[in-house]
Amino acid sequence: MKTKDLLAMTGLAAIWGASFLFLRLATPALGPVSVAAGRVGLAALLLWPLVWRQGHGPAMRQRAWPLAVSALLACVLPFLAMSQAARTLPAGLMSILNAVTPMWGALVGWLWGGERLGRTRAIGLLVGLAGVALLSADASQLLPAQDWPQTLLACALMMLGTLLYATSVHYNQRHLRGLAPMAVSAGTMAWGAACLLGPALWLGPPDTLQEASRSAWLTRWAEVPALAWWSLAGLGALCTALAYVLFFRLIQRIGPSQALTVTFLIPVFGMLWGALLLGETITPTMLLATGVIAWGTWLSNRGPAVPPVRT
Fold it and tell me: In 3D, which of 228, 106, 222 has the Cα closest to residue 169?
């Protein structure tokens, strides 16, 4: 791998690692639905002029409904799940749990995509799941006993989000083959915004006041602190729109298999940003679980796979 590609991968990991920091800062003030809606809405606004100038509009219209399904799998449901998890879990912990995405990709590829699993890859899946269990148990110890159910639910939501990410990759291989990656990103973000903006505006930011003195809908929007808005802007512009562009350029230069190894670097930056900017604790168990999950993910993605089933 060339030096410039390694630097690009490190920069991409730093950006994606910051997404969990932004989630922790934006979600308490704006709520999970508003954060997910703002993230995809801003990304769509930034990506659409690029794909339109490149002439992808007609192809995107022909694949409108597959793009809608991809949006549910790749951004609407995962972003909602992860935004909700951010109300409980530290940024560093979320970044570690997010690293299991390639592991789920191997499992979904075996169950749905017709890929070979084999003994090594099966062991990798078990090792990765063991790392997740170890991390979830450690997270419970960091919070009061009464918060354990919420912690485990948040970990489950993170797992659901990563599973949906992996499923969307295989869905796109079947139903969006031939469509430019940038067009897929812009199309899914646009559909995601169409699904989420209405509910986000209707629900508004969460109201922490008591029932008898609840703030008016417009007042709640006005009371959202500037830090939350800046964090949402970072999520949409940096961690979604820019990150997708960088990732797809990296795929073109070094191939998808090597580009996906960026996942192993994300927890490093997720824990770093959380510790430096939010004062989060990095425990020895978290470091151990990071290594276990990375090892399991590496094992689960070893070996050749048969081509995806054509439909």
Answer: 106
